[in-house]
Write a structure and sequence with these properties.
Elements: E1 18-22, H1 27-37, E2 43-48, E3 64-68, H2 74-78, E4 86-89, H3 96-101, H4 103-121, E5 129-135, H5 163-182, E6 186-191, E7 193-195, H6 211-214, H7 217-226, E8 232-234, E9 240-241, E10 243-245, H8 246-259, E11 265-268, E12 274-275, H9 276-287, E13 294-296, H10 312-318, H11 326-339, H12 341-349
Parallel strand pairs: 1-2, 1-4, 2-3, 4-5, 5-6, 6-11, 7-10, 8-13
Antiparallel strand pairs: 9-12
Helix pairs in contact: 1-8, 4-5, 7-9, 7-11, 9-11
The structure holds nicotinamide-adenine-dinucleotide (NAD).
Nicotinamide-adenine-dinucleotide binds at residues 22-23, 25-29, 47-53, 70-72, 90-92, 94, 109, 113, 133, 135, 168, 191, 193-194, 204, 216.
Length: 364
């Protein structure tokens, strides 16, 4: 059992380690791979079918071995041997709306992925930790009233708003099963809303909805704001979310691997509630967008209006604090978006027959 003093940095445990990152070409995954490389691992294997990712998001580094395939592919699974120290499972069918449009595709890439991966690795004896990217939205109370910070042991309902949420929960169930049955050293990291550099609008293949291009609220707002468009505020932007910068999530994932208890669950959250209207205002201020927001009706599928994660357990047990202030994280996201505008435009252009996106100026 590690003590608080041991937890200044998670990096030492990854030195010379054999690491597998499933979904490692994605937004969070590619940031995680970059951070892991700073810890001098022996090898970082990435399995990703580029369903919602771009190959160029992965760093070119001789220690990164990229396998372009689904983790449900039996030959890929057969190629995994008991030589892995750490596994991070981040593959998902991105995201809520796409899963509503195609629940079977969600099942294939968000549930079956998890079951087949865990069934393959559960009996490996060298494994030190298997970290699973779970979603705080599945556990958060579906409320419009004052949000109580959602703790790790909050009751989980049986009624959810999307197949995506159901799949993320099933992943927890399966991991808990393989932990109980085979002692697979399973750790659940429950994310809040992650934003930051590396989230490429339009990344990957068409997944049935405009969200294939627009992904999440922060990158959408940043792009539209840079194009001086009106930011759409559903329900007048009164919903709240707990936004966490991607570097903080990556630090939290590494802390889950280094210090998390097998069988444990940890929120990776900032603990701060931000309204969508405040987010829009901040982004417009940072980009200098003079166009006022556009008030829209509420989304018909989303009953989770106010949401924030409790941070105590991760701070005490993992030494984890989300350090990045939202203004700073947004400023860095905007700078990255400007610098990467060509790459982002190329990814969005693949879907131009279905979604028209504005061009942005890359000038400051
Ligand atoms: N970004 C957030 O705000 C957030 C919030 C809560 C939970 N999460 C979870 O974090 C993880 C990473 O999310 P992200 O935002 O980086 O999404 P992402 O879409 O960028 O990454 C998911 C990756 O999984 C890959 N993938 C999909 N199907 C696959 C398959 N069958 N085999 C192998 N790879 C496959 C995709 O190509 C992509 O690279 C996901 O599990 C997601 O559910 C993210």
């Amino acid at each position: 059992m590690s003590t608080a003093a041991d937890k200044s940095s998670p990096l030492p445990v990854f030195a010379n380690a054999e690491i597998l990152v499933v979904g490692g070409a994605g937004f969070v995954g590619s940031n995680l791979v970059r951070a892991l490389l700073t810890a001098n691992p022996a090898r970082v294997r990435v399995v990703d079918n580029l369903l919602s990712a771009e190959r160029k998001n992965l760093p070119d580094d001789p220690r990164v071995e990229f396998i372009e395939a689904s983790i449900t592919d039996d030959s890929v699974l057969a190629g995994l041997n008991d030589d892995l120290d750490y596994v991070f499972h981040l593959a998902t069918y991105h995201g809520n709306q796409s899963s509503i449009a195609d629940p079977l595709a969600d099942h294939a890439n968000n549930t079956l992925t998890t079951l087949k991966l865990f069934d393959r690795i559960a009996r490996f004896v060298r494994l030190k930790k298997v970290v699973y990217a779970s979603a705080g939205c599945t556990v958060a109370e579906k409320t419009a009233d004052l949000a109580k910070p959602t703790t790790e042991d909050a009751p989980v309902g049986l009624y959810h708003d999307s197949p995506y949420q159901v799949s993320k929960l099933i992943g927890e169930f399966y991991g808990n099963y393989y932990f109980g049955r085979y002692k697979m050293p399973f750790v659940k990291a429950r994310f809040q809303n992650v934003y930051g550099p590396g989230e490429i609008l339009g990344a990957g293949r068409w997944r049935g909805t405009p969200e294939t291009v627009w992904r999440n609220v922060t990158p959408t707002f940043v792009w539209r704001s840079l194009a001086h468009e009106a930011l759409p505020l559903e329900n007048a932007g009164q919903a709240t979310r707990d936004f966490i910068f991607v570097e903080d999530i990556v630090e939290g994932l590494m802390r889950c691997a280094a210090f998390g208890d097998a069988g444990g669950v940890y929120n990776l959250a900032s603990g701060a509630e931000t309204t969508i209207a405040e987010l829009a205002e901040l982004i417009n201020r940072l980009t200098g967008n003079p166009t006022p927001p556009d008030i829209k009706p509420a989304r018909d599928w989303d009953r989770s209006i106010r949401r924030v994660g409790a941070t105590d357990k991760a701070r005490e047990k993992l030494g984890f604090i989300a350090r990045t202030k939202i203004e700073d994280g947004l400023a860095r996201t905007i700078a990255w978006t400007r610098a990467s505008a060509g790459m982002i435009e190329a990814a969005m252009a693949k879907h131009a027959d279905k979604v028209q996106a504005p061009r942005v100026s890359t000038k400051k």
